[in-house]
Amino acid sequence: MKKIKVAVFGIHRPFRAPNERYRFEQYKNFLLQNDLIINYYYIINGEDDKILFSKGNYFKKIWIYIKSFFKRWQQIIKLNQCDVIIIYRELHWFNCLTKHWMNIIKNKTQKIIFDFDDAIWLKEKNILAEWIKSPAKKFQTLVAHADMVIAGNSYLSHYAQQWNKNVHIIPTCVDTDYFVPIPEIKDKNKCVIGWMGSHSTIQHLKTIIPVLKKIKQLYPFVEFKFIGNKTYLSDLNVYVEDWQKENEIEILNSFDIGIMPLPDDEWSKGKCGLKMLTYLSCEIPCVVSNVGVNKEIIEKTSGGFVCNNDKEWLEKLSLLIENPTLRESIGKQGRKGIEEHYSIKKWREKFLELFLL
Fold first, then answer.
1. Residue 212 exposed, middle or buried by CB count within 10 Å (0-12, 13-18, 19+)
2. Whole-angstrom Cα distance, residue 14 to residue 85?
3. Residue 105: which residues within 8 A CB-CB, separation 6 or more?
4. Residue 10 contacts by C-beta under 8 Å, 6 or more apart in sequence?
5. Where residue 54 falls among pLDDT bands split at 50, 70, 90?
6. Is 236 exposed, middle or buried (0-12, 13-18, 19+ CB in 10 A)?
7. Measured distance CA(226)–CA(249) in Å, rounded
8. What is the pLDDT of residues 143-177, one digit of tens each?
9. Torsion region of 53: left, alpha or beta (phi above 0 gives left; psi -120 to 50 gives alpha)
10. pLDDT tens track for 98-135
C-alpha cells in the first residue's frame, strides 16, 4: 500500500489547542498505523503562547502575530508536494493572503481538507480585529478552496454547504481509553459540582452564578471545582484554577456533577459539547444548557439533563445532589453512550476513510 503524505496546518504547538487535539491529534497514532506520513506545521510555540494569553504585553503580542504570519508564509512557500493537506480552522488569524495561500497549497497537493468545530465566521466585536481578521471572508475562502470540509456538527455543516457541497460531519470525540472513571478519587462526604473550560468560556460559567449561590445556601456540603484560567469568582468565593493536561483526569474524576452553561447565541449553536463528552466518559452526570448540540448529546447518551432557565438549573442540580445513586446510574449510562456515539474508536475508521477518498 502506498504511503500517504499528510501536511497538517494548525496554529498552536501540538496538544495545546483543544480543537486540534480532539479533531486530529488523538487520531494520529491510528493514522500512522495505516501508512500515513504526517508532518505538523504550527506557528505558535510554548513561550509565545504564554504571552498571548497573558494580560498586557501588547507590543510583544503584536510582534508574535507579525512573526507568526511570516512563519506561515514561509511554511507554505517551502512546502513539499504531498497527498493531503488538512487545515484546522484557519491558516492565520489575519485574513491577508488567505486566498493566495490557498491557491499555492492547491498546486502542492491532491486534496485539501478543511476542518472546523466552531462558528468561526462570526463577526468580531472589536472593529480593528474585524478588519484584520475578516472572519466571514476568511472562512468562505477556506471552505470554497477546500476539496473536502469536515464539520463538528450539523449546524456547522449546513452553514459550510453554502460554499462547498462536499461536507462531512465527524463529531468531536474523546479517547475512552484515556478519559476513564476512577471512582475512588471521589470524596463520599462531599458533592463536587465541577466545570472545566478555558479563558474564553469563563463568561459562560458566570451566567449561572446566581443558581450556584442558591445551591450553596441549600446544600452547605456542596463544593465547587472550576478549571480553566486563573480567575477569582467573588460571588462564590471560589478560584478558577489553571488547566493542566497532566492532572485533567484526576480533576475530572473528583467531580460528582459536571456543568456546561451556555448563552443561547449563534456562537454557542456551533459548539460541539467537548466538556460534556469528557465528563460523561468519566461517568460524571451532566447538567447543561439547552443550546446547540447539547440536547442531542444528552439524548444519545442519557447522561444528564438540559436546562432552559435558572429554575430548571436549580431543580436538576438539586435532584442530583440529593440522589447519589441516581448520579451513579446516570453517569454509567453516559459513559456507555459516549462509547457508542462519541468515542474515537467509533469514528476513527470514518476519519481515515476521508483521507483515502
1. buried
2. 16
3. 76, 79, 85, 112, 145
4. 17, 20, 24, 40, 41, 42, 88
5. confident
6. middle
7. 14
8. 999 999 999 999 999 999 999 999 999 999 999 99
9. alpha
10. 999 999 999 999 999 999 999 999 999 889 889 999 99
Give the pTM. Answer: 0.93
Question: Could you count the other beta carbons within 10 Å of the beta carbon of residue 183?
Answer: 11
* Contact by Cβ (8 Å): 13, 21: no
Compute the residue count for the chain.
Answer: 357
- Mean pLDDT across the stretch 289-295? 95
Over pLDDT 90: what percentage of the chain? 81
For residue 64 the three cell numbers come to: 508574535
Contact 139, 151 (CB under 8 A): no
Which grid cell is 108? 502542492
User: Distance (Å, rounded) from C-alpha 11 to C-alpha 34?
Assistant: 25
